[in-house]
Amino acid sequence: MTKEKQTKPVAVITGGSRGIGRAVAIALAQQGWNICFSYATNLAAAQETTACIEAAGGRAVAVKADMAKREDIKHLFEATQQAFGRLDALVNNAGIVGEPRSILEADDAHLTEVFRINVLGSFFCVSEAARLMSTQRGGQGGSIVNMSSAAARHGGMPDEAHYAASKGAIDSFTFALAKELAPHGIRVNAVRPGLINTEIHEAHGGQALVNRIGPTVPIGRAGTAEEVAQTVAFLCGPLSSYVHGALVDVTGGR
Ligand code: NAP
Hints:
Layout: H1 3-7, E1 10-13, H2 19-30, E2 34-39, H3 43-55, E3 60-64, H4 70-84, E4 89-92, H5 108-133, E5 142-147, H6 151-154, H7 161-181, E6 186-193, H8 206-213, H9 225-236, E7 247-250
Parallel strand pairs: 1-2, 1-4, 2-3, 4-5, 5-6, 6-7
Helix pairs in contact: 2-3, 2-9, 4-5, 5-7
This protein binds NADP nicotinamide-adenine-dinucleotide phosphate (NAP).
Residues 14-15, 17-21, 38-42, 45, 66-68, 93-96, 117, 147, 149, 193, 195-196, 198-200 line the site of NADP nicotinamide-adenine-dinucleotide phosphate.
């Protein structure tokens, strides 16, 4: 194991290849972290993110891992251990909106897909990460940041009850984890972004929707992935040592 492997903190970021996850990876790399991130399908984006992390001074490992699959999640954490031999933070970021669908047309497969990725995937990632970081199991403690959404409190866009409810589950999960994992030396918080200009909005109107809603946000515009990333990086690191069980809105006031 190299000296760098022993001294630099390491973060796992799920869905780190694009959007908010990529911005978090770059922000943490700039602050001296090494990064293991997952992506679902887009290899070119993952390669671009790897180059960005390295340009920011970090080492990067990209792992193709579907957060809807338990085996893929196990593989993500095994790859992290193999590459870096330690884990200091988990950013549970991967998520989808899912196709807009009225509750009058509720569909099993549709709901299952959204909840598998947004909720169950987050549960299994925490399970893997907590085992590695727990001070009761020989770990050094650490920080978990769950990616929720302002939709958890305002209900989200039309016909997206599935998405809002999946993020509500993440808020409750965060409160419960803060109690359960504190004795293991692990802090747990959630970030709730508002309207952030990323490709996730392709599911329901894309850039046209962002342009239409942006001016209605109190601050007058949509946010950037980088603006969310700064808050996530703060919650991962030692400057937030007494922030625990918090839901931090990054919403421009919406
Ligand atoms: P994005 O631009 O669509 O990026 C999504 C990322 O997640 C990509 O790296 C994608 O990988 C990955 N991903 C998607 N499905 C996956 C799966 N099954 N397994 C593993 N990785 C998967 O999304 P974003 O806007 O950055 O959103 C990131 C998080 O912030 C999500 O949890 C979202 O709900 C939350 N959020 C976003 C906003 C917003 O306005 N943007 C607001 C509130 C909350 P590939 O590149 O391989 O597809």
